[in-house]
Design goal:
9 helices
Length: about 250
């Protein structure tokens, strides 16, 4: 019963959130700030993780496929498809769920326990729409760009392995990442990233919005937001993969 209660409350909150803002001026004042906070400030961690994962994937693939029957370009091909299909969309969003989800949940949760949200409601403001909509829209807009950057930087990480080590030659790696490229894989990753971005931002906002109590409850809300959004990301990853790649 608790599960259905939570789902129902989430749906009702989204009904309040996903309506046209009462004052567009306030929305457009908040929107650029959220773009910077949720998107641009996530760029360093995306760059660092992606370049190392690209390098590690290349090294591990090459060392674990030492077979004369396999073509020399197979390492680059496996690295490229792994980055495009899974890492730069699913794994990256799981990482961002920890950073962005906890950020949103703790920010809105703090506003709830300090009664700032109650004050907005008393003034007749749709607090859910005012506080949550700019965050959801900003994160959904920025996530595909972060995913594309992650793909490119991950491939550069693999290229650096070829450039600065003798594990694989640059020529073989470049041939592999170009061989039998399927553009649909990029579309598939971007669709997943849009869905995951909405899940992360909306679930985190939900737990923050209903964080009643004290500072300890804000911490619990952040934890619940990260855990539940991660589970939902994995579930929808399975669902979207079945729908788009079958």
């Amino acid at each position: 019963m608790k599960f259905f209660k939570e789902v129902g409350r989430y749906v009702l909150l989204m009904r309040k959130v996903l309506v046209l803002p009462d004052r567009w001026k306030m929305f457009f004042r908040q929107f650029p700030k959220e773009l910077e906070k949720l998107g641009l400030q996530s760029l360093p961690i995306v760059l660092i993780i992606s370049v190392f994962i690209g390098a590690i994937l290349t090294i591990q693939t090459k060392l674990n496929t030492e077979n004369p029957l396999l073509p020399t370009y197979s390492t680059g091909l496996v690295t490229r498809d792994t980055l495009l299909l899974e890492f730069s969309s699913t794994i990256l969003c799981l990482i961002l769920a920890g950073k962005i989800g906890s950020n949103i949940a703790s920010e809105i949760g703090t506003m709830r326990i300090t009664e700032q949200i109650d004050a907005l409601e008393i003034m007749g403001v749709n607090s859910a729409n005012y506080l949550i909509l700019p965050k959801i829209v900003a994160f959904v807009v920025m996530t595909p760009f972060l995913v594309i950057i992650s793909m490119g930087v991950g491939l550069i990480g693999g290229y650096l392995v070829g450039l600065f080590s003798d594990i694989i030659t640059v020529a073989d790696y470049l041939l592999g990442i170009q061989y039998a490229f399927i553009p649909y894989y990029v579309v598939y990753s971007l669709v997943k990233s849009l869905v995951f971005a909405f899940i992360i931002s909306s679930v985190a906002a939900y737990y923050g919005y209903y964080a009643y109590g004290g500072a300890l409850d804000v911490g619990k809300a952040s934890t619940n937001a990260v855990v539940n959004s991660s589970i939902l990301i994995l579930f929808f990853n399975l669902l979207i993969t079945n729908l788009m790649l079958n």
